[in-house]
Amino acid sequence: MAVNSFIQGSQLFTYSGSNCIRNDYFHNECRACVDICPKDAFEIVRNRLGFVEERCIECAGCIGACPTEALQIKSFDPNAFALVRLEADVLTCKKNTPCLGVFDRHHLITMALEGPLALDLSHCSGCSLNGEGMLERSIKEQVDAAQRFLSRCGVEAPITINYAKQENLENSRRMLFRAAIEKVKEGATEESVMDMSLTRSHQKTTSSHEPLKHLHLKAAIKKHIVRFQTTTLVADDGLFFNKQITFESCTNCGDCVQFCPTDALRATPDKHGIIFGSGACIGCGICDHICKVDAISTLPEYDLVEAVFDRSRELVHYEMVKCQECRCPYPYRGGEPICDRCLDFQKNFGSMFTLARDV
Ligand code: SF4
Ligand code: SF4
Ligand code: SF4
Questions:
Q1: Quick one: 90 and 211 in the same domain?
Q2: 312 CB contacts (<8 Å, ≥6 apart)?
Q3: 105 & 82 share domain
Q4: pLDDT band of 61, cuts 50, 70, 90
Q5: Domain's final residue, options 59, 75, 91
Q6: Number of domains in the chain
Q7: Which of 31, 32, 141, 311 is the most buried (most CB within 10 A)?
Q8: φ, ψ dihedrals at 93, nearest 5°
Q9: 129-179, pLDDT tens digit by residue?
Q10: If you measure from the C-alpha of residue 72 to the centroid of ligand 3, how many angstroms do you get, rounded to a whole number?
Q11: CA of 276 to the centre of ligand 3 (A)
Q12: Residue range of the domain that includes 332
């Protein structure tokens, strides 16, 4: 069976190679879609993502698992659904959504902040898509993570799992999707604050690859921030992250800035420093990996206000001076003004030149 290394799309979903962090950055080890797929439809081929279309059973579990929204299904948009939500207090694959694996913690928190939310998992056992319970486990993990985040913040926004079979499920999904589209159309004509922020958010996504679910979550938290008891949080929730750069080690090479997929790391306007916005970081780890001098590291806590209001901090700033050996500008860290390249050269070849001079 042939493995497609460059997935363009299938009957069910589309794939954006530039949004996939594994394919965009060769050394990234994301395999969330590979691990969740009950039919092994994804494969890693020469460290890149491959896809065997014949194996895909169109369960949509991989859509919710992908941290960057590189995978999307054509028939259902979890972001649009999470925003309008309609009167759907109970999410069920038998009435209003595909497999609930299509949602992740971002969507669940966005919805729960608007009112109590229940997920109907009564159909999972016995579902042909739920290979060895993999999808059900993943849905529960996302619910747990969303609940943990909300309870850490001291916010009353319950998400429950429902195992009792729902009655009257004969309403077709199509009716709900049609209603959702109407609602989105109505919303598009209103000049609300939410609409404005979404418009801006969307523009930002196209340039920086920050996932839309991340932008929607920030908009929802901003709207409800007065209900939050605390905003200093442990950075293990998979939602927001915090970084620092060690001044003494960083060479201002700019590699981390260049490869950051969401522009969470940016150069200062004078290019002498690096700015970080924890609201845009998706914790992909590319910056940690790419830094040759291990100058960048992840902090154990983050500030939710800083993250959702997209406030940035300057992590490092250098005075640029001319190296007295090669005359090239370099980031000065004190001591004799000699750049790292010349220091390296002296260290590795200095004895050779001394020997040559003595001979
Ligand atoms: S989960 Fe998304 S980012 Fe990760 S390997 Fe799969 S498609 Fe790429
Ligand atoms: S933190 Fe590392 S990768 Fe980023 S500019 Fe400094 S040395 Fe380069
Ligand atoms: S700051 Fe680092 S971990 Fe965060 S998105 Fe950018 S490259 Fe990934």
A1: yes
A2: 266, 275, 276, 277
A3: yes
A4: confident
A5: 75
A6: 4
A7: 32
A8: -70, -10
A9: 877 788 899 899 999 999 999 999 999 988 999 887 655 544 444 444 444
A10: 22
A11: 9
A12: 320-358
Is the Cβ atom of 64 under 6 angstroms away from ligand 3? no
From the CB of 215, is ligand 2 less than 6 Å away?
Answer: no
H-type helices in the chain, by residue range? 21-24, 32-36, 61-65, 78-84, 105-112, 134-152, 173-189, 193-208, 212-224, 255-259, 286-290, 304-308, 340-358
The ligand with the least distance to the CA atom of 244 is 2
Judge if 109 and 222 occupy the same domain. yes
CATH of the domain at 64: 3.30.70.20
Q: Ligand 3 test: best mutation among 27, 209, 263, 286, most atoms within 8 Å of CB?
A: 286
Contacts of residue 129, defined as CB under 8 A and 6 or more positions apart, other chains included, come to 38, 57, 59, 61, 99, 135
Residue 206 has pLDDT above 70, yes or no: no
Mean pLDDT across the chain: 82
Binned at pLDDT 50, 70 and 90, residue 316 comes out as very high
End residue of a domain, out of 75, 93, 112: 75
Q: Which tens digits make up the pLDDT trace of 327-339?
A: 988 888 888 889 8
- Say whether 275 sits in a helix, a strand or coil: strand
Same domain, 92 and 212: yes
| Same domain membership, residue 15 and residue 94 | no
Q: Which ligand 3 atom lies nearest to the CA of residue 259?
A: 7
Residue in 163, 160, 170, 100 with CA at minimum distance from that of residue 136: 100
What is the CB neighbour count within 10 angstroms for residue 78? 26
